[in-house]
Specification:
It is a single chain. The chain has 296 residues and is an alpha/beta fold. It contains eight helices and 16 strands. Strand 15, helix 8 and strand 16 form a beta-alpha-beta unit.
């Protein structure tokens, strides 16, 4: 099968398409035939060597929309099931940017019934990150939350999920994104700063760090999206950062929200798997609203 990998670090030109053996599922695993797989900033980080791994092959891709192709023992899925899944890809030799991928059976959920595979492929990594970051904040309905990067993939899901939970959301993004952010459920919008100490919590999808921490009231909460990179606690503010984990049951809840119309899936552009390097080049250009998606 074909897969996108890196064997040396660099720019988009470092992405290679290689021929490798089709992986076999073990106990509690399933093999998925990939119909679509989103490209995320973490893939660019792997490609550039941000996470290490020099001297060996590293797979790319975390999101999957596809079909169950083979089932290991004790895996409660059937061949032909249309599914989505998160492949925790850090440091693995193969990721979801491939024709087939093996994942734990409990990382899988039925695919949304209301969208196509490219749109479904934008859900797992970014929506699970947003949902798990909100869990860290542990806010009650009616409390106030600032989401930075509110027009982005993680930030957009965070705005929608927070509004669905009854939180009062302020979205921070570029001025041109105000209509989008408000359409996602933000009650308030800012293209600049928020009043110091004015909100119960911040979900910092734009990685503003201490600048955004200053907006949280004494004793509030702050969640970043890069593990270990959150600012130090001040004024009794709890600071944490989400490390996303595969969770099929939680992913199934998010799928239901998609089918109910409560979550919006955004595809910016699709590329053939063979053009993975071109997709990386487009990602590096920035200014994307939605996700780039690879289609084998």
């Amino acid at each position: 099968m074909r897969a996108a990998v890196v064997t040396s670090f660099g720019g988009p030109e470092a992405v290679e398409i290689v021929d490798v053996a089709v992986p076999e599922p073990g106990a509690g695993e399933v093999r998925l035939k990939v119909a679509a797989a989103a490209l995320n900033p973490v893939d660019a980080g792997v490609r550039a060597g941000v996470f290490g791994g020099a001297g060996r092959q590293l797979g790319l891709g975390w999101d999957i929309a596809g079909t169950v192709d083979a089932v290991g023992t004790a895996a409660a899925w059937e061949v032909g099931d249309e599914v989505v899944a998160l492949h925790y890809g850090m440091g693995t030799a193969l990721g979801s940017h491939a024709e087939y991928v093996v994942v734990p059976a409990d990382a899988v959920a039925k695919a949304p019934a209301t969208v196509d595979a490219p749109h479904a492929a934008t859900l797992p990594l970014n929506a699970l990150t947003a949902a798990q970051a909100l869990d860290l904040l542990a806010l009650d309905p009616g409390q106030s939350l600032v989401v930075t990067g509110a027009a982005g993939a993680v930030g957009g899901f965070a705005v929608q999920l927070a509004a669905h939970r009854g939180l009062v959301v302020t979205g921070v993004a570029r001025p041109a994104d105000e209509d989008l952010v408000r359409s996602l459920g933000a009650a308030h919008f800012s293209a600049d700063d928020v009043a110091a100490g004015g909100v119960d919590a911040v979900l910092d999808a734009a990685r503003l760090g201490e600048r955004a921490l200053a907006w949280v009231r004494d004793g509030g909460a702050f969640s970043g999206v890069i593990p270990g990179a959150q600012p130090a606690s001040v004024r009794g503010v709890r600071t944490d950062a989400v490390e996303v984990s595969a969770d099929g049951a939680r992913l199934a809840e998010l799928v239901r929200l998609v089918d109910d119309g409560a979550l919006t899936l955004r595809v910016a552009e699709t590329f053939a798997l063979a053009d993975a390097a071109k997709a990386h080049a487009r990602l590096d250009e920035g200014g994307i609203r939605g996700r780039l998606v690879l289609v084998p």
